[in-house]
Specification:
Layout lengths: L8 E4 L10 E6 L2 E12 L4 E6 L5 E5 L4 E5 L2
Antiparallel strand pairs: 1-6, 2-3, 2-6, 3-4, 4-5
Length: 73
Amino acid sequence: MTAIATPSTARILDLGALSAGTVVEARRKNEVHYRGCVEDAAPGLGVVWIRDDLAGHRALLHLDEYSIWRISA
């Protein structure tokens, strides 16, 4: 399932800037594939785990596969 990208966002290039509870989107070709709250991040590995709001499960996202965007409240 894809969703429309949220307009008030900022791209995350450094996963060290993320903390638990931060709401993010994972996009591929400007289509949102995942959206949810960060549970954990491993900046050295280039991965972040989120609880996906769209599908309701935990997702492992890698920066090589997705662009990560912080959603402004």
